[in-house]
Design a protein that fits this description.
With 200 residues, the chain is of the alpha+beta class. The chain contains seven helices and eight strands. Strands 1, 2, 3, 4, 5, 6, 7 and 8 form an eight-stranded mixed β-sheet that branches. The chain starts with a helix and ends with a strand.
């Protein structure tokens, strides 16, 4: 490794520690230009529902990042650099495997899970939504009921309004909810919100 690359990596690592909830930096009320406290959103570019979810946050000023099957690359690259400048929460609608990677990378960076939604497309003509979290899932549940045909946008709307985590047990689950299915997709998508630990 060249000396220049080593010094650059060391500088980035130091800045991340300083900007993390474990470091001395204070997470700003406004992440970048996003008024909802969500600095960035990750999405699977292959699915229209994921794009709708990400577009909703992008309109609020969050950075929109396609996973391209490599969520880890984002967490150690462009997303990390963005969070150094604009600390805040990270939302996503991805495959379950990209969610697993994001959950692990987020934990390393000092984030905790505020919300997780599983969206099962295996039912005939319907999508089954199973939501859990520490308060945010209640807002999501209500929003999906009011706008079931635009469920991905509804989730983004609810998460953007949920500023604090309510004092409920972690992992609390809302009743199962179903919406009409669009397209012929099979499998699962996962929506999620990671919040800096000091805001939990």
């Amino acid at each position: 490794m060249r000396r220049r690359d080593f010094l650059l990596d060391a500088a980035i690592a130091s800045a991340i520690v300083a900007a993390s909830p474990l470091g001395p930096a204070i997470v700003s009320e406004k992440a970048g230009d996003c008024g909802c406290g969500i600095s960035a959103v990750l999405y699977d570019e292959r699915h229209a529902d994921c794009q709708m979810f990400a577009d909703s946050f992008m309109r609020r000023g969050a950075l929109k990042l396609a996973t391209n099957g490599d969520a880890g690359g984002l967490w150690y690259g462009r997303l990390r650099q963005h969070l150094m400048r604009f600390p805040g929460s990270v939302a996503g609608m991805t495959t379950d495997s990209d969610w697993g990677v994001s959950r692990g990378c987020g934990r390393e960076a000092g984030f905790t899970v505020a919300y997780e939604g599983s969206h099962d497309f295996r039912m005939t003509g319907a999508i089954a939504h199973s939501l859990r979290g520490c308060g945010a899932e209640k807002d999501v549940y209500t929003e999906i009921w009011s706008e079931p045909n635009a469920w991905a946008d509804s989730i983004a709307n609810a998460l953007s309004r949920h500023r604090t985590m309510e004092p409920t047990a972690s992992g609390e689950r809302s009743p199962l909810i179903t919406t009409l299915r669009t397209g012929d997709r099979l499998g699962y998508l996962t929506s999620w919100l990671l919040r800096p630990s000091q805001l939990a």
